[in-house]
Design brief:
Structural class of chain B: alpha/beta
Helix content of chain A: 40-55%
Strand content of chain B: 25-35%
Strand content of chain A: under 5%
Distance between the termini of chain B: 15 Å
Structural class of chain A: mainly alpha
Distance between the termini of chain A: 12 Å
Order of helices and strands of chain B: EEHHEHEHEHEEEEEHEHHHEE
Shape of chain B: globular
Number of strands of chain A: 0
Oligomer: heterodimer
Number of helices of chain B: 9
Largest sheet of chain B: 5 strands, mixed
Order of helices and strands of chain A: HHH
Radius of gyration of chain B: 19 Å
Number of helices of chain A: 3
Amino acid sequence: MLEQITTILRNYKDDQSLEITEETTFEELGLDSLDTVELLMSVEEEFSVTLEMSDEMKSVGQLAAAIEAAK
Amino acid sequence: MSLRIVSLGKGIPAHRVSNDDLAAFIDTSDEWIRTRTGIESRYVCRDESLTDLATAAATEAIERAGLAPSDIDLVIGSTFEGDYLTPSLSCCVAERLGTQCPAFDLNAACTGFIFALEVAAGFVERQKAKRVLIVCAEMMSKHIDWHDRSTCVLFGDGSAAVIVEPGEALKYISISTSPNSEMLSLPVGTGNSPFVHHGKTKGFLAMEGQKVFKFAVNVGAVELSKAMSALGMTPEEIDYFVLHQANKRIIDSIRAKVGQPEEKFPMNIQRYGNISSVAIPLLLLEMWESDKLKSGDVLFLSAFGAGMTAGSCVIVWG
């Protein structure tokens, strides 16, 4: 799953060398609140899930956990 | 279908407020606002009333069509609050114009123009009206909390008017509601009734920005898909996507989903901010004035708003 999220993030940031771990935060990636929504929408499409908007979701690991819970 | 657009007009306040002007009294910056919304300035009322703006827009549209106010059979106002809760804004405009035709307002928030177009089409189709004046007007500056930097930078005041009459230009129109009173709302309060148990004061416009963004992008893409399917068309056949001007990034995101070139997505949000249901007719007017619109151009109009409302139409220009 991390691999798929990494691909989505690299495409979104247009940077194929982006290093992503579960600890990487959206803030570190320079994503603002609307970027985060767009990211969530891409993830929803990729994984065929519906995710709730939450201010608590700040890192890639938390995003992966939310996808897992929504499956 | 039943109608075509024959004229447009606008009424814009004289006072322009730049992002730097806002940064002088709230914690924000031109760079922050521009990169997150695409907005560079907006116009706000100082001395003008909403009736002033709406009457200016209506008068311009009537004069450009070579008509007299008496040629109008129906006035539909689109606003969520005129200068009075009653009488309606459209009645105030009709009074200024000196017309005696029926006049009423509808409130579908930012989707109001599309809803008004649908209502007008019904009147025209039933031959209850030949020429309908749609006046969209909003004074957002009185509804927003000027201490809240997340909302007050987004909106502006203004009016735009459209005259429609029988024709074959409207090829498709759809309005819908996904009821939700929390995502985007403006509470009016309970007044000073001594009988109310839990009184509420009038509030300011509040929204759950991320949810609104998601709703807007999804609904924009879905509305287009519905329209194309109904008409047996592809997005390539649309000349311009005239979308509600709420946030440049919403428009960019819809464009990415639709996969059409940037030049097909005209914008004026940078100069006006979000003026609710005024946005689409004002953008159409500016495209018309700048000769961007050619007879036969196929336009996809789409908006979303509080409610949550959504609407779209496909209309051929000219």
